[in-house]
User: Fold these one by one.
Assistant:
Number 1:
Amino acid sequence: MPNKMIITCALSGAETTKAQAPALPVTPEELAASAEEACRAGASIVHLHARNADGTPTADVKIFKAAMDLIRKKCDVVIELTTGGAVGMTPEERIAPVALKPDMASLDCGTVNFGNDYIINTLPIMRQFALEMNKHGVRPTLECFDVSHVQSSHILIKEGLLKPPYHYGFVMNVPGALSLSVKTLSYMIDQMPPESYFTVMGVGRAHLPGIYGAIAAGGFIRVGFEDNIYYSKGRLAKSNAEFVERAVRITKEADLEIAKPGDVRKMFALKE
């Protein structure tokens, strides 16, 4: 589907707090309202984390379901759940929400330093997650924080646990992981198998370079509070929709069309 730009909005993540970004959506109601605004602005996918009432991250299936149900009542955006969860969660906790049968879910393809912390993703964990996603008809986004993660995904492909079309999420500029540059992004792309798409996720200061890099390299864009809380230097974003609106403007200036949720479902062969 040439000339179509898919924009994903990562609504909240697991680490950012309202003290850091007052506009951060936390409750199911806030997440649903933010998802609707992002969809209206031009996002065709929302990446969803869940929070407890006190704002701490959770993998509680009931809270995920509440948010998903509210989002589906408000708009037809493609819902992608996290299975990365948060630092300290067990693999069993992280994968549990996939039973809700979202359209898509992230599948971290390797262990990664995450600032002063780390998130463990061994090959057995990756296999477990791929099997569970296959069981529920969920399309994985293969999140890669390093070149070796892209290469690790090939093991699951050879074992028949992943089927095309493949969608990679290149998470760039996480402290302790791979930085974003023309060379690093190009090398990540070079490691992908045939029948692959990719989305660039520029974290922090790599937010805007990630947008331009995705357009230049023929990939897709992710924006949102999970990846960055500042719209510009020293100025907090007012909403997730504000990030999406800028991505839409830049995309249109590059003479690309904005993909609709229906385009994503067709392109990624998602279940009806």
Number 2:
Amino acid sequence: MKQVFAITRGMLPVDTSYCPGCTHGVAHRLIMECLEELGELDNTIAVSPIGCSIVAHQYMNIDMCESAHGRAPAVASGIRRVHPDKVVFTYQGDGDLASIGVGEIIHAAHRGEKVTTFFINNAIYGMTGGQMAPTTLLGQRATTAINGRTKESNGSPLRMCELLATIDGAVFVERVALNSPGNVRKAKKAVMKAFEVQKNGLGFSFVEFLSSCPTNWGRAPYEAMEFIKEEMIPYYPLGNFRKPEEF
């Protein structure tokens, strides 16, 4: 039978403002596809903070609100406790989650909040001008590290999956990548499992997407995909770091 491509009802029929080669749009679609397949589009509330993710509400066809920089996990925790019947997720970048919001995400995981966090790791501050982020790789250039990040001056890049996997309340932790069709298919499976963990009331779930930022990396879109494969994945290995026994 011939398969017909269809646009998910979870995405609004508008053009995005993301740069060419940016994979935010891919992540958006995967999340919305999963919610549609679960029948939860009309039962979901999402929180996006400061960063490129601040415009996500313009593209995702669900109820969304914004939070202060780094505070999405706290806002999502409150929403889920008031509305325990809702599916609640945060959509955050690495500058937001792994820097100003690192305390928020750690304690949401420690509390075992029944929410899901989608973490877009493109190893740079995207919206604000390409500054070095906690996830910027050693040797990678940024506007605040023009000669490249060094361990002596800036420490090593922060691995959030490995960190959160040590916390009992974080029951599902997985890192995926958006640089190839095969990896995108695996990413969708991780998104679906994260939502299933939440719907079953098992605790906090977390999916990290290795994503691209061609503009601030100073690379063509196809070069950005190679950067994910050749530079990011070796330092940020893909795979599951924690999951319930039934998964």
Number 3:
Amino acid sequence: MGIGIEKPLGVGGISSNITVDRNRYQKSFGNNLQTDTFERTGINRYTTESAIINMVKANPKIITILKEVNAPLSINMKELNHVLANHASDTKNIAKGITEHLPFSLQNKVDTKALLDAAYLHDVGKVLIPANILNKAGRLDERETEIMHKHSELGYELLKSTDIDKKTLHLIRNHHQNAKKTGYPFVDNSFNADLNLQILSLADKYSALTEKRAYKEPLGAKQALTIIYKDVQEGKLHPFVFKALVNYASEKATAAV
């Protein structure tokens, strides 16, 4: 049972032992934090509470970014762990599936490690976004949207102090950008939404559309693909990347039946 794309429709979220004074941004990390002993060499080593704290300490720009949008510095490991176990893992699987359904000539252009690492870590910056914004049941207002849009840049700044390679960092920072440069954060004219970035952006969007969130019910695969097809029409997404997602989603649907 395949998934057909008909005529496109016009369819045009933290608390821990860290406390921060909202006005002065004074960090109090406490003295009893234990070093995590699991996943010291795997990618999960970047997502532990001690790792996040060390990243914040290592990069003053993180505080500057939060100040610019008048957001408090707080770390919510519960929210991050939920993202990693659900949306991030789903995005990683979808990115892998899209890659496997590309023409062979394009598969050779994918940096699989950078792509899959970025897919898993792309929303790590949400650990610094207030929970009341991440989990708001309704539409975000202008200020809340401005804060939410900082998550990709915050993720980049957090991980920049680690040994993650520049290509993975680039993907994390720009996973909400596209070939028309109409996404966020701001990029200049030299920016190129390459194949790896288009796969990550597409996987992220498809996962977000098809999962339940505080403000919406999950969409079916056909509905999500119809919405995403608009990005192809507007030149934001290469048709071959979209077709690979369609084939992956169709294969999953067939396997489910």
Number 4:
Amino acid sequence: MNYRQVGTSGLKVSEIAIGAWLTYGGSVSQSRAADIITAAVERGINFIDIADIYSRGMAEKIVGAAVKDLRRSDLVISSKLFWPMSDNVNDRGLSRKHIMESVERSLKRIGTDYLDMYFCHRFDPETEVEETVRAMDDLVHQGKILYWGTSVWDAAQIERAIGDARKWLAYPPSVEQPRYNMLDRHIEPDIMPTCNRYGMGLVVWSPLAQGLLTGKYSDGAPAGSRGERTDWLKDDLTGENIDKAPLLEKLAGSIDLSLSQLALAWVLRRPEISCAITGATSVKQVEENVIASGVKLAQDVLDEIEAILNNDPTRESV
């Protein structure tokens, strides 16, 4: 496993991380989740990404139980807040009240004294950015979080957080967590350069496009699959994208990689990316994904990928 710094911070994370979205406490049982997390750590993964909203707190509890016998300093554990966790009008958003109360609940569920990273899970238009920045700064000073970040914020929103942090001499966000994969490259024109300019790392989710870049949707959504059960893939599961998967899979096979390994290596081709957060429902998937760490794609392979994808947003914007 290779490791990268999170932006210009001193924190290092494994190039392949493990995430708990839509799995732990949901489609994956507690015992199987523990096996997956153990296998991930044994193979060098040190970053585990959670959020309070994942299975309404159960993901945090399951991860906490899985790592309770591991040395805490060996792990990088993150959680997030924003989405409503109850009917309480204040149990949502990025107000000081919700931040201070949410972090305590997350720490208790996970069974840890601190979070390595704490993410604002979306931008909150109802709360002044200054209030959020200063609350996060207080949590850093209290030792309850070590770094804080944004998730699915646009470039202008990130700029506002940086500006307010500088104004109040507060800890600025160190990391952004956006969606990024071969089929969704929206961060390349603005968000990626903005984060790079301010020394923020990028820990990206959905690097396999919710499974579309594993090849399992080449013939459409199988019965019982996530693509059939949820709306998360409705924008990606197009004829055009489905047609790209076998071409990419053939290219991957020509260099002795699986499609998922090629997709992960492609994400990691960018030095701005700190890691790719993967979901795993089996130990086998973990074993396959970690192989992508350290894979360097030759320029001719990258050129062929670009020809298949034909979706470079920076080229389109010129």
